[in-house]
Structures are given as structure tokens and as C-alpha cells.
Design goal:
The structure is a homodimer. Chain A is built from 5 helices and 1 strand. The first copy, chain A, is mostly helical. At the A-B interface, helix 3 and strand 1 of A face helix 3 and strand 1 of B.
Chain lengths: 93, 93
Amino acid sequence: MDFNTGHGYAGDKVGRIKALMCQACHGLDGLSKVPDAPNIDGQLEPYLVAQLQTFKSGARKSDSMSVVASSLSDQDIEDLAAYFSAIEMQVVF
Amino acid sequence: MDFNTGHGYAGDKVGRIKALMCQACHGLDGLSKVPDAPNIDGQLEPYLVAQLQTFKSGARKSDSMSVVASSLSDQDIEDLAAYFSAIEMQVVF
């Protein structure tokens, strides 16, 4: 999220509220809190959108995500993907 | 990877060689090189094992990963998961 340009900010702000439903497993920082949930901090936005859509459609299955994604609108999915993808992540060398 | 204790070293070294087949999409650093491949640097090891197994079994489908995973042994999957999960990643605040 870039506070100077505002790029991604609206999406992130809305996304952060919607992300409250994700935090028990993925954290608001996108770092996994349970062994079977992936880290999603800084994950590619198109990948997050695609995976949420495949969970929603049933093409990909998960005990938790199949339930959660079934309730998401396309806008929810865009907002959540915008939020988590905007978290900056780097590899530590 | 901890060079002092050697923890994870053997797995990582073998995994790094096997990871050459992954690098075009995921990079040897685990950072995605193509829009439809996720970052997998520092991803949870049990999650990586589970996903590779579901791609191999056909329970999860992907044009590229369904092909790649079909050729992987259980040992390959363990080595690759050990390698990518050992890459240190952090959220930048």
C-alpha cells in the first residue's frame, strides 16, 4: 500500500475489514497461524483471485476455504486479493 | 537453512537440485516469475507437501503443476517442500 499515491489504498482498507474473517488462519498480516493454511502475505493478486474463485466454484476443495469462499462475492474476492497482495514481503538472504 | 546445526541442510541441498525443474515459474528463491504461479518462499512445509500430493493425485488441478507433480516421488515432494520452506521470508512493515 502506497500512502503517497494512494494506490491500492481503498481496496486495502475495505479488504482489511473483510480480511477479519480470514485472520484466524491467515492472520491480518497474511502469515499462517495454523499448519494447514498457507502464508498469503504479498501473494500475487491474480493468483489469490483465481484460487478464491476455484474454491468458490468447487474446483479446488478445502474443509475451511470451501465454506468461506462460498459466501464471497466477486467484489469480496477482489478486495481480499488486493489487501493480502499489497502486504510487502521479502526473502531474507 | 542453518549452517551451524546443519538442520535442513541435506534436504535443502538435494531439494535445490530438484528445484531446478521449478525455477522457470517459481524461481530458485521461491518468488513467482509468472502471473499464475504463487510465491512459495518460506511457505509452510506441510502445506507444500499437501499441495504437491493433491496435484499428484489429481484432487487439485493446474495445467503446469498437474504435469510436474505426476512425476514426483514422495521423497521428491519432501525434498522440494524442505527446500522452499527453508527460504527465510519476512513481512516488511
